[in-house]
Amino acid sequence: MPRALVTGGAGFIGSHLCDYLLAKGFSVIAMDNLITGDIANIAHVRNENFLFVKQDVTNYIYLEGPIDYILHFASPASPIDYLELPIQTLKVGSLGTHKALGLARDKKAAFLLASTSEVYGDPLEHPQKETYWGNVNPVGPRGVYDEAKRFSEALAMAYHRVHGVNVKIARIFNTYGPRMRVRDGRAIPEFISQALRGEPITVFGDGRQTRSFCYIADEIEGLFRLMTSDSNRPVNIGNPQEMTILDLAERIIKLTGSNSRIDFHPLPQDDPKVRQPDIGLARQLLQWEPRTSLDDGLAATIEYFRQRM
Ligand code: UDP
Predict the structure, then answer these.
(1) How far is 55 from 32, CA to CA, in rounded Å?
(2) Ligand 1 centre from 181 Cα, in Å?
(3) Which end of the chain is more exposed for a tag (fewer CB within 10 A), N or C?
(4) Is any atom of ligand 1 closer than 6 Å to the C-beta of 268?
(5) Between helices 187-197 and 294-308, what is the axis angle to 10°?
(6) β partners of residue 265
């Protein structure tokens, strides 16, 4: 039975990875310090091959026995979280990635890094291909996340080149679905919560900035295929269907049947103006592409939020 460690295993993407791996017959250790993760995300798991370890991954990790895969997903990931936790965000991306890679080297485990479209910053190339080097402001408020992830990628590649660690780098674009927090701060959970409460929808800027949203089940499938692939190159895993934030807000108002109005607020500093993955590489290497329509994914997410609110 293959054994996997998921750091950030009680988080949004991490907990879905745990479910997926358990269903595939893996033994799974979830590690999380619960600063943005939530034990409720894994409380449903009834499986003797599942273990939760409450630990900050920036500290030395000691685990007995073999580990075949390490999936490094621990990090604050919502802009409001990394603005509130800038030093923890930098530490988990640097010290935490170092500890997780050290463990991968020791256990001869394959290593999947949760990187991000944020490595492209406010992109000057559109859509973004893996060959694009990015346009990141290192000293701006988002720099703590962007640079931590860029450092993570550099460190992962150094461990691959120097120590032969079998490293995979997933550049994850905006992902949404059940288990996002009601007060997450990111556009989809924020807009759904506001619409369900009948409060104004807070669109930042003029709402003409774009994003491309991938449903969690599609994202997990792509991540698993990358984890078990032969490739050591960064690969974009996201949904190329691009839309404006204003269109997203209107779509959510319609699907929730809400009578919320839209309020415009100032655009946060360094907010990327456009974002869309080129997934040609994922299609070719992994035979993967997203399958869930935005309406279906939003419907499932809205249902989850209705039950929680
Ligand atoms: N956004 C917004 N209102 C909100 C939250 C986010 O208009 O209440 C905008 C944000 O400025 C950005 C886009 O929605 O342009 C996506 O933001 P999110 O925080 O989801 O992720 P990002 O892609 O910026 O990391």
Answers:
(1) 5
(2) 15
(3) N
(4) yes
(5) 60
(6) 204
Q: Using the atom order of ligand 1, give the atom closest to the CA of residue 207.
A: 7
The pLDDT of 170-199, averaged and rounded, is 97
At 229, is the pLDDT very low, low, confident or very high (cuts 50, 70, 90)? very high
pTM for the model stands at 0.97
- Domain residue extents for the chain: 3-175+214-239
How many angstroms is it from 22 CA to the middle of ligand 1? 32
Which among 245, 250, 252, 301 is the best mutation to test ligand 1's pocket, defined by most ligand atoms within 8 Å of the CB?
245
Q: Is the CB of 241 under 6 A from ligand 1?
A: no
Q: Give tens-digit pLDDT for 113-141.
A: 999 999 999 999 999 999 999 999 999 99
Check pocket membership of 246 for ligand 1, CB cut-off 6 A: no
Residues annotated as catalytic are 145
Question: pLDDT of 14-71, one tens digit each?
Answer: 999 999 999 999 999 999 999 999 999 999 999 999 999 999 999 999 999 999 999 9
Other CB atoms within 10 Å distance of the CB of residue 21: 25
Fold of the domain built from segment(s) 3-175+214-239: Rossmann fold (3.40.50)
**So what's the pLDDT on residue 213?**
98
Q: Determine if the peptide bond prior to 266 is cis (ω within 30°).
A: no
Sequence letter at residue 180: M
What confidence score (pLDDT) does residue 245 get? 98
User: 93 CB under 6 A from ligand 1?
Assistant: no
Read off the amino acid at residue 189.
P
pLDDT number for residue 279: 98
